[in-house]
Automatic annotation (TrEMBL):
Belongs to the aspartate/glutamate racemases family. This is Aspartate racemase. GO terms for molecular function: amino-acid racemase activity. SUPFAM superfamilies: Aspartate/glutamate racemase. It comes from the Bacteria. Coiled coil: none annotated. PROSITE patterns: ASP_GLU_RACEMASE_1. It comes from Candidatus Woesebacteria bacterium RBG_13_34_9. Gene3D superfamilies: 3.40.50.1860. The keyword Acetylation does not apply. Keywords: Isomerase.
Length: 235
């Protein structure tokens, strides 16, 4: 099996869940747990809030991400994964900072949605993910139209995600997220894409629309690489 390197801490609870899901899935296939290395990114809370809520000071994340990637490479990782959509604003620079492969949650998601013949997707993520149009190029290449929340709802998304990162979310946050999803459903979308890996902590299913979770898709891609499965796309 290949040794996976995880750039974690960009949502501690989500990192923990991602790690456990990869371990359980690989163990089920191979009969033993995989060798995984985690480098926890220590982002100051005020910087994290600026990036997530206000989409500012993103450059402060870059040295933390590339340093973690280089540490994982030195520790013997065969490839790297970043279970955070927003951090993929620097995916090209992270890839250039190391000599080992770095999986992209955006590429994996785009391939998956294409395989499901999705044409219109309601995309939920941080303001930085939306502003930087992280998914636009890949999804449009596959003929997929992106529908995003209005500006007011996007501001609420930022506050909601920040509370998830700090483990201070509550039932009102789930209710608010479902309301935002309902507004997107009214725009004739084919599915909802949780383009923030922390959102799955609040909602995973909806009675009116299919929800696809980017964390789940990255988990399957990571398992594929660890156990060296030849199938190129998650199902």
């Amino acid at each position: 099996m290949k040794k996976a390197g995880i750039i974690g801490g960009l949502g501690p609870e989500t990192t923990s869940k991602f790690y456990m899901e990869v371990v359980f899935a690989c163990s089920k296939i191979t009969g033993k747990p995989p060798n995984i290395i985690v480098s926890n990114v220590g982002i100051p809370l005020d910087v994290e809030e600026e990036v997530v809520v206000n989409a500012k000071n993103k450059e402060m994340l870059l040295p933390l991400l590339t340093n973690s990637a280089q540490q994982l490479e030195k520790a013997g990782a065969d490839f790297i994964v970043v279970p955070c959509n927003t951090a993929h604003v620097f995916i090209d620079k992270i890839r250039k900072s190391v000599r080992i492969p770095v999986l992209s949650i955006i590429e994996e998601t785009s391939d998956f949605l294409k395989s499901k013949d999705i044409k219109r997707v309601g995309l939920l993520g941080t303001r930085l993910t939306i502003n930087e149009k992280l998914f636009d190029e890949k999804l449009k290449e596959n003929g997929i139209e992106i529908i995003i929340p209005n500006d007011s709802n996007q501001s609420k998304m930022g506050l909601l995600i920040n509370r998830l990162l700090r483990n201070s979310h509550n039932k009102k946050d789930k209710k608010e997220l479902l309301r935002i999803i309902d507004e997107l459903v009214a725009k004739n979308i084919d599915c909802i894409l949780l383009a923030c890996t922390d959102l799955q902590l609040l909602v995973r299913n909806h009675n009116k629309v299919k929800i696809f979770d980017t964390l789940d898709l990255l988990t399957k891609a990571t398992v594929r690489e660890v156990v060296d499965i030849s199938t190129p796309k998650p199902t």
